[in-house]
């Protein structure tokens, strides 16, 4: 204790709150060597992806925009500048308007069919108590198959000709007449072939997306609903499961619409023959610039078609995302 009337002097050593090994007034920061190490490993793993994305996506896209402004017949270094001439020629082509009808019809069939089938498969697999991984892999397996291979299997085995093929064999069991699936225009049975092959190929992929969304739904919601008297089945699906899958549903529909715009393999491999694409079937959007690039060797017109398709997909994506509220925070 200090004597009365005297004051205690503070030690002239380090100030209160100061730590050993640190200068007063300076904040501890990250070491430059550690930052350089993190940056090195970041670009080591991300750099190849960024380089590949730029080399195989953005550079060809920029080159296509450049070629679309020139008269580029049989050359990749054109000199005859035509401005928007290739775009007006593509937009004024009657086949372009016909291809928009093809897209509308294909979208009207494939989007709801794939959505319903993939959601149903996800609900069924999610309720399994055993072998869930097995059935998930089985249903996803067609997504790894090539569109060209699947189209040829459909054409040569399932819907082959009038007398042969699995579909006509099944019809024969019930006494029905065989159908020329890919050559019939009244009714246009070829739409059934196109839609079913795309449905078989992509339903498993979107099933996995829905399954991931289902596994994120909190179990306590179903428990609370059961305490309130909700019956398992339609009531819980309508009031709990389906609203919880809103973000997943928006993403699935968006991907399906974009995929419908890019449809080409199944149309070309199912309907075309040695004489080319049949006149009774409206061509898809991709087929227009494919013929301009492949048959006509008009790189300018084909590039204009590719740019138009990319712009249409971008506009549809933005509009659909805004309308559906994709990316909006849920309250």
TrEMBL record:
Taxonomy of origin reads: Bacteria, Bacillati, Actinomycetota, Actinomycetes, Kitasatosporales
Composition-biased stretches (Basic residues): 7-34
Q: Which family does it belong to?
A: Belongs to the binding-protein-dependent transport system permease family.
**Keywords, ordered alphabetically:** Cell membrane, Membrane, Transmembrane, Transmembrane helix, Transport
Localization, per the record, is: Cell membrane
Q: What is this protein called?
A: Sugar ABC transporter permease
Source organism: Streptomyces albireticuli
Q: Where is this region: Disordered?
A: 1-34
What GO cellular component term, any one, is given? plasma membrane
- What's a single GO BP term from this record? transmembrane transport
Gene3D superfamilies, A to Z: MetI-like
Its chief place of residence is membrane
Membrane-topology descriptor = Multi-pass membrane protein
């Amino acid at each position: 204790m200090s004597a009365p009337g005297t004051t205690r002097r503070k030690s002239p050593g380090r100030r209160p709150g100061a730590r050993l090994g640190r200068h007063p007034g300076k904040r501890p920061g990250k070491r430059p060597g550690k930052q350089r190490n993190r940056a090195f490993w970041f670009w080591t793993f991300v750099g190849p992806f960024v380089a590949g994305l730029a080399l195989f996506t953005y550079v060809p896209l920029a080159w296509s925009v450049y070629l679309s402004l020139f008269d580029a017949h049989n050359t990749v270094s054109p000199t005859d500048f035509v401005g928007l001439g290739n775009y007006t020629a593509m937009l004024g082509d009657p086949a372009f308007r016909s291809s928009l009808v093809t897209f509308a019809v294909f979208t009207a069939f494939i989007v709801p069919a794939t959505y319903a089938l993939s959601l149903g498969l996800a609900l069924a697999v999610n309720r399994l108590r055993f072998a869930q991984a097995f059935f998930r892999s089985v249903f996803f397996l067609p997504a790894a198959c090539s569109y060209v291979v699947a189209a040829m299997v459909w054409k040569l085995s399932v819907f082959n000709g009038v007398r042969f093929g699995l579909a006509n064999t099944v019809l024969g069991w019930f006494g029905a007449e065989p159908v020329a699936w890919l050559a019939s225009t009244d009714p246009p049975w070829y739409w059934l072939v196109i839609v079913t092959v795309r449905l078989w190929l992509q339903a498993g992929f979107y099933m996995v997306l829905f399954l991931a969304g289902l596994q994120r739904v909190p179990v306590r919601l179903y428990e609370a609903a059961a305490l309130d008297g909700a019956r398992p089945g339609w009531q819980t699906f309508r009031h709990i499961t389906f609203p919880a899958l809103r973000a997943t549903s928006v993403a699935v529909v968006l991907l399906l619409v974009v995929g419908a715009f890019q449809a080409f393999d199944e149309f070309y491999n199912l309907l075309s023959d040695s004489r080319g694409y049949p006149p009774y079937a409206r061509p898809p959007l991709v087929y227009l610039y494919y013929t301009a690039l492949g048959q006509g060797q008009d790189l300018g017109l084909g590039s204009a078609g590719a740019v138009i398709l990319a712009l249409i997909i971008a506009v549809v994506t933005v509009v659909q995302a805004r309308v559906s509220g994709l990316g909006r925070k849920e309250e």
